[in-house]
């Protein structure tokens, strides 16, 4: 397929000369641990377009790992931040309080799912939000155990690594991990046992939770279940409404709190403000970060007021938590989502991506599954033919080549064989179609090699 580009403009190979120079400096001064997907160094970002230091323009399908639902440098956010910086930068809410903190807490209490009184406080990252949600759940319930799900991802701190399922690269060699953390199984309908229906898989896994309570830890010792409404790093796996509501029912039955990790799925990505809404969930605690503030570092924990009141003064918080800059940016992002129809736009984007990937799957047998919700869409690469054997090598080659051809893209999945789409929701149809054409060309070219 020949692709005529209009937004991708490659003046040099990627990485270009200036990026190569910066890569050399990076390798000398930065450890290898922090990974990079694109070989280019960015100079500017606007909406869904990146310009690198060599003047190449690229289409961003990664969105800073889902942090840029509102796009690069949304003007209203930039203006709000400029105004805030001119007033004060960071007096620390624990020392000198400020109104943007309260304004954002009030807004999140209003828009998060759950028909009950809520309270909110702020931190810096998604991992910190999860860590503190666990602290609050333990304090409120007086219990120690926390249950997460296989393939789930919750962060890189000691507690969140313990809750995360994938060993490499997230956990390997970093143990011992936090005690009183447990895992149960999450549906993976594409890989269910042969002859089993989706409904049968749900019932089987739910029955295993009963066995887990008998064989591992009794429910009266469990403070919380934590799950992503849609698994992100796990491969964009969407559970059924039945499964999710049954998890909520189990929690309610046993006095266990339900924590919804909305860090990657929240703020319009799935076509609703929060992915939990698709399943009719009313989580006791919700963790948020990434796209909350168009890339400014801030995270939140919102929950039932009586649960959030469990910690005493000074037991939760942090010096930089809820920075005024992050708060004003987040308020503008929420306004954008609500006023500019970004939830509806996410549905349109998702339909376009799924349609394209499904048509592509008719041209090659290495796409085993196309799935997702709203603009949180992925395709799973396999060996082909009748085999569902994961094809990590092929996925890696496709991702690397897409990045070299000007589409910034990421992988995911327990088997590292999933290609995921996290483009900004402000992307235009022309930009979206151009990037999808490049992906198609790369897939077909790579398969033919």
Automatic annotation (TrEMBL):
EC number: 2.6.1.19, 2.6.1.22
Pathway(s) this gene product operates in, as recorded in its UniProt entry: Amino-acid degradation; 4-aminobutanoate degradation
Keywords for this protein: Aminotransferase, Pyridoxal phosphate, Transferase
Superkingdom of source: Bacteria
Coiled coil stretches, renumbered: none
The keyword Cell cycle appears for this protein: no
Cofactor(s) required, per the database record: pyridoxal 5'-phosphate
Reactions catalysed, as given in the entry: (S)-3-amino-2-methylpropanoate + 2-oxoglutarate = 2-methyl-3-oxopropanoate + L-glutamate; 4-aminobutanoate + 2-oxoglutarate = succinate semialdehyde + L-glutamate
GO biological process: gamma-aminobutyric acid metabolic process
InterPro entries: 4NH2But_aminotransferase_bac (IPR004632), Aminotrans_3 (IPR005814), Aminotrans_3_PPA_site (IPR049704), Class-III_PLP-dep_AT (IPR050103), PyrdxlP-dep_Trfase (IPR015424), PyrdxlP-dep_Trfase_major (IPR015421), PyrdxlP-dep_Trfase_small (IPR015422)
Gene3D superfamilies associated with the record: Aspartate Aminotransferase, domain 1, Type I PLP-dependent aspartate aminotransferase-like (Major domain)
Gene Ontology MF: a single term: pyridoxal phosphate binding
Family: Belongs to the class-III pyridoxal-phosphate-dependent aminotransferase family.
PANTHER family assigned to the protein according to its UniProt record, in alphabetical order: AMINOTRANSFERASE CLASS III, LEUCINE_METHIONINE RACEMASE
Protein name (record): (S)-3-amino-2-methylpropionate transaminase
Native species: Pontibacillus marinus BH030004 = DSM 16465
């Amino acid at each position: 397929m020949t692709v005529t580009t209009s937004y991708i403009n490659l003046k040099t190979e990627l990485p270009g000369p200036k990026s190569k120079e910066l890569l050399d400096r990076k390798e000398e001064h930065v450890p290898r641990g922090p990974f990079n997907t694109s070989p280019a160094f960015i100079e500017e970002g606007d909406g869904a377009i990146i310009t690198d230091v060599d003047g190449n323009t690229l289409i961003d399908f990664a969105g800073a790992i889902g942090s840029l639902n509102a796009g690069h440098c949304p003007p209203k956010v930039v203006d709000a931040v400029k105004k805030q910086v001119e007033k004060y930068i960071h007096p620390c809410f624990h020392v000198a309080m400020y109104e943007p903190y309260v304004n954002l807490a009030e807004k999140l209490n209003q828009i998060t799912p759950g028909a009950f009184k809520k309270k909110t406080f702020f931190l810096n990252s998604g991992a910190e939000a999860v860590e503190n949600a666990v602290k609050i759940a333990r304090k409120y319930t007086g219990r120690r155990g926390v249950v997460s799900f296989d393939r789930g991802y919750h962060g890189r701190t000691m507690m969140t690594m313990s809750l995360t399922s994938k060993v490499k690269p997230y956990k390997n060699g970093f143990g011992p991990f936090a005690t009183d953390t447990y895992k149960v199984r999450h549906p993976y309908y594409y890989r269910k046992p042969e002859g089993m229906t989706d409904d049968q898989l749900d019932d089987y896994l739910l029955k295993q939770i009963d066995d887990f309570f008998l064989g591992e830890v009794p429910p009266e010792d469990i403070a919380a279940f934590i799950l992503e409404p849609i698994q992100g790093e796990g491969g964009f796996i969407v559970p059924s409404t039945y499964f999710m509501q049954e998890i909520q029912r189990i929690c309610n039955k046993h006095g266990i709190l339900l924590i919804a990790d909305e860090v990657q799925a929240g703020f319009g990505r799935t076509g609703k403000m929060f992915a939990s809404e698709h399943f009719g969930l009313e989580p006791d605690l919700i963790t948020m970060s990434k796209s909350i503030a168009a890339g400014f570092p801030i995270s939140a924990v919102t929950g039932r007021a009586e649960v959030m009141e469990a910690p005493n003064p000074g037991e939760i918080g942090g010096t930089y938590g809820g920075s005024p800059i992050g708060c004003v940016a987040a308020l503008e992002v929420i306004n954008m989502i609500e006023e500019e129809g970004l939830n509806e736009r996410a549905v349109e984007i998702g339909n376009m991506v799924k349609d394209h990937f499904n048509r592509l799957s008719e041209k090659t047998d290495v796409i085993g599954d196309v799935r997702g919700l709203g603009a949180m869409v992925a395709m799973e690469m396999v060996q082909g033919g009748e085999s569902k054997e994961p094809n990590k090598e092929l996925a890696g080659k496709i991702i690397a080549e897409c990045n070299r051809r000007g589409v910034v893209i990421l992988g995911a999945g327990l088997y590292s064989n999933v290609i995921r789409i996290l483009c900004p929701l402000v992307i235009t149809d022309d930009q979206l179609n151009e990037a999808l054409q490049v992906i198609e060309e790369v897939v077909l070219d790579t398969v033919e090699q």
